[in-house]
Amino acid sequence: MIPNLTLRRPLAVLDLETTGVDTRTDRVVEISVLKVWPERRAEEYTRRLNPGIPIPREATAVHGIGDADVRDAPRFEEVADDLRARLDDCDLCGFNLKRFDLPLLAAEFRRADCPFVLEGRALIDPQEIFHARERRDLTAAVRFYLGRDHDGAHGAAADVRATAAVLDAMLARYPDLRRDVEGLHSQFLDPRAVDPNGFFTRVGGEIRFAKGKHRGQPLAFIARTSPDYLEWMLAQDFFEDTKAIARDALRRRGTGPDPGAVKRPFRSC
User: CATH for 11-128?
Assistant: First the structure.
């Protein structure tokens, strides 16, 4: 197991399935740990967990785990001590570990009042290696999809011609891609998206912040309690669609600058 990597102590490769992507408020519904010892002995531990909150349909569509599947499963706090013991002597590894799995896991340990120390551990995130070693720019796309070098890279005319050719090659390569513009637009659009900046999302019919220091909070609540934040947004370089949503929230609160005409929200098709 991982024969090309030298281990001096056990390595725990872990992955979480969760109720969502907010590392502060979402919960674990399944955890899997592959523990590999220096002598190459390996042990796998997988456990489903009851998150204590409803699992959104969008999350179930991703990992296939619904409320009924975890109704009788233990809560995280019930397995926290055992899980910490499994990880205590380990370095940690996971795809997108540093930005997602580890922050969410640490939050779960805090809520369970179970100390989980990271000091002294090595953290390996293959996603970092992937992004560092495999270019994801237009030149790389031309080479991969068209099998040639991108002559004239970063010249506007050459770039637009290459972009059109790459898109056509993608459509030819992947039969599941929609062949109409509106369909292709909607295929890669977050169904909960409210604005093209991705600053707002719709959760259960309510608009919430998807980014920033108020991430996860309802827009209406922030408009009432921190209207200065929305006023700050109006002075920034956001798309006008995003500003219109903030402006409308201030108007509904009965304060803030003259809202003007609120533009139509970002199309979600």
Answer: 3.30.420.10
